[in-house]
Design a protein that fits this description.
Two copies of one chain form a homodimer. The first copy, chain A, has 310 residues and is α/β, with parallel strands linked by helices. Helix content of chain A is 23%, strand content 26%. Chain A contains ten helices and 18 strands. Chain A has a seven-stranded mixed beta sheet with strand order 6-5-4-3-2-1-18. In chain A, strands 7-8-9-14-15-16-17 form a seven-stranded mixed beta sheet, with helices on one face. In chain A, helix 10 links the parallel strand 16 and strand 17. The two termini of chain A are 26 Å apart. The interface between A and B is medium-sized, with 35 and 35 residues.
Chain lengths: 310, 310
């Protein structure tokens, strides 16, 4: 049976911008898309995000949820343009925006002075102070969690919805279960055969793989308070604005070094660590790998435009 | 005498973005710098302007005046990022911002929610309803003039300050005028020789060339009401959002076609016409040249990154 049962259950991250504060050396301010089960989530939206989305072929029509971590401009100055452009493009699908409470009055002021009426509903969800499930659908769940920055800031935990039980194709054939019933099997249902006998679900399936989990840790001082949220995730994206040589700058500006990020990944027992949010003082970011990899082996220094499988 | 007397008196425009509304086909939203006598003026500041300025090596330290034509996002969404980045870069020089009155409260709100205190004075000058001289220095003068758009919108006339009188080097040598007195000669002063005799200025100089003038016409419906402001300028930048085939769209959206822009250039008797603000519906903009050039010969379809001598 060449049938690929779970092809729809994927998660991958595309880095649209991985520089801190100001753009430099071709690196853009923070933005990334998370493709999860066919839906595209946008996390942060620095200046130029809509242009980066065009460059890397991110589909607006699959985008219904945008998450903004905090109100530093390098994380949201691309949002007004993206919101406008989707309206000029005739979007009708609702767009859900999750961000700090002060975000929406600014967007509303920008729309008002231009006499702009959007072509679609823009639904704002202010972030709470602490951790909370922001949205849960049949495809994914996103939870915010507080990090420690100069102003209020949140990370986001993206979890694919359960993949359901895993089919045992040989058994399904043996018991004569039609392919049309496979979705019900994945949901744990028993199969009633035409002759009235019932085949219990556990004979036809086994427990499915754990749903993929991705943690985006935003801008933050090194803090172990986030461990409960990121523990054991498949992939953690953590900022590494500085190298250890500039650890004092990292503390002063509520940022993290590459080695600290690696240490947190080790403590959290994550499977993969993605580094980003590099300071404009570094033209070359190879040293981030040299510094982090002795502490946590499976580390990636992200590159804009690259797609990382979770 | 190989001396180049007036090398400082130059004017040139660098196009940072020439697309309308949304970025497309590698074209960015509106922004351009005007270098005049060593100073750099920024006119409009669409999303991504600071990145474009890096790409095309525009110097922040020569930038002290920014002009925003109107409150459509494609003309100012790059401004908050640019303002922030100059502060992060430690700028101390004052920055003068000229734009519609509603611009500054938005900038202030954006700075306030980020707890940002700029490293330099940002001085806002709201645009008047009509035409007015906005700034005049020993290097240049900028005047705004109203155009006709869906919301309040202004064009800008940039005039280099007088070049002074033009030296006649052979005469200067003949009368024994030292090079150290050349600046005074350009300002019209007579030369007093060591023996007490006076050489009248008109013997040593002739009238200098007219100061260069550049008109940026922003987003506008075709309108001859701007003729008094743009008449006879060396270069006029006029929007050409559409081709004549879409003249109905141009009217509906308060924009201009390539042929209309050429017609205005002919009526105004300008020396050169630059076209820009192309709609995202056109991948290829060669047709703008075909449409405009039969009506006005010295027309240029602008290309981002190109520098145009005025």
């Amino acid at each position: 049976m060449g049938l690929v049962i779970f092809e729809y259950y994927e998660m991958k991250v595309t880095i649209l911008g991985n520089n801190s504060a100001t753009p430099a050396f071709g690196r853009h301010p923070t933005a990334q898309t998370v493709a999860v089960n066919g839906e595209v989530l946008l996390i942060d939206c620095g200046e130029g995000t809509q242009i980066q989305m065009q460059r890397y072929a991110a589909k607006w029509r699959k985008l219904h949820h945008i998450f903004i971590s905090h109100m530093h401009g390098d994380h949201y100055f691309g949002l007004p343009g993206l919101i406008n452009s989707m309206s000029l493009g005739g979007r009708t699908d609702a767009l859900h925006l999750y961000g700090p409470a002060p975000l929406m009055p600014i967007i509303e002021a920008i729309l008002a002075v231009a006499d702009t009426v959007l072509s679609y509903p823009l639904i704002f969800h202010p972030l709470p102070e602490g951790s909370e499930v922001l949205v849960e659908t049949h495809l994914f769940r996103v939870t915010c969690f507080p990090v420690i920055h100069r102003i209020a800031c949140h990370g986001f935990l993206v979890e694919a919805s359960t993949r359901g039980r895993k089919l045992l194709p040989a058994r399904c054939e043996e018991y004569g279960v039609p392919v049309s019933f496979y979705d019900e099997l994945k949901n744990g249902e028993d199969y009633s055969r035409p002759d009235g006998t019932v085949v219990k679900n556990y004979l036809l399936t086994e427990p499915g793989p754990s749903p993929k989990r991705y943690a985006y840790c935003a801008d933050t001082l090194y803090t172990e308070t986030i461990l409960p949220y990121v523990k054991g995730v498949d992939t953690m994206y953590h900022e590494a604005t500085y190298l250890e040589a500039d650890a004092d700058k990292a503390v002063a500006r509520y940022h993290t070094t590459a080695r600290q990020a690696a240490q947190l990944a080790a403590l959290a027992g994550v499977k993969q660590l993605l580094l980003g949010h590099f300071s404009s003082k570094y033209k070359d970011v190879d040293s981030f790998m040299e510094e982090a990899s002795p502490v946590f082996a499976n580390v990636v220094v992200t590159v804009e435009g690259n797609v990382y499988e979770i």
